[in-house]
Amino acid sequence: HSRSPQIHRYWLRHYDLDGSYDLAELAPDQLGVFIEKLRQSDNAGANVTLPYKRDVIEYLDEIDEGSRDVGAVNTIYKQGGKLLGTNTDIYGFLTHLSLTAPGWQENTDSVVIIGAGGAARAILSAMKISRIDKIYIANRTISRAQNLIKEIHPAARAVKMVQLNDLLPTTDLMINTTSLGMVGQPPLELDLLTLPAHSIVVDIVYTPLKTRLLLKAEQRGLVAVDGLGMLLHQAVRGFELWFGTRPEVTPELRHLVEKSLEVPP
Fold this sequence. Notes:
By secondary structure, the chain is α/β, with parallel strands linked by helices. It contains 10 helices and 10 strands. The strands form 2 sheets. It has a 6-stranded parallel sheet, sandwiched between helices. It has a 4-stranded mixed sheet with strand order 1-3-4-2.
């Protein structure tokens, strides 16, 4: 299901670089062996996807603060003879948000994050890095949201999903990190009429590209931020670490990935 090969191969062609990006499917007992082979090889690094984003950490020499907060690594790179790990989801989220909603940070006091899974960990870490403290995490299982807060950003607060509507009138930025609204999943049913006129609505789902939540936001004239941009921009950091070239997320690349998702451009 990964779009990473498509993205990175596009950049390799675009910048005329001598390199390749290939998939490797591993059984659980092969992870340590693979990482050791990576260490000894001339490969520049690797991406890591589920279910190994946590397990891979023990095989690396160092990971950065964001990865420690999230408890997951999705990008491995070499530096000074060491294998280092980072989580580029944080960078991808913040970059796409800043490009789609310039000045968002200066105009954001209160944030609502829906969900408390792996994606929520990266988003909460991004809010911590952005020095935003008034954060509410809404989740069906409130204890899971509480654990997330304890591990990453103690200033945040956990709330039940049924409390969401009470929070909306004072919400500047709302982020859906759940699979609700994804193709094959039930929609995220929320009444956005009480959101302030300046509010930003983010949905990290990108199949469909415009979820029902984002369509509702657009109908209200709110800034709507889709999930595909996060996917594309998170790849930028890894490519730069591996090949020394900072790639650009071009309209052509976005169109290419949209087509692969069978989403109309």
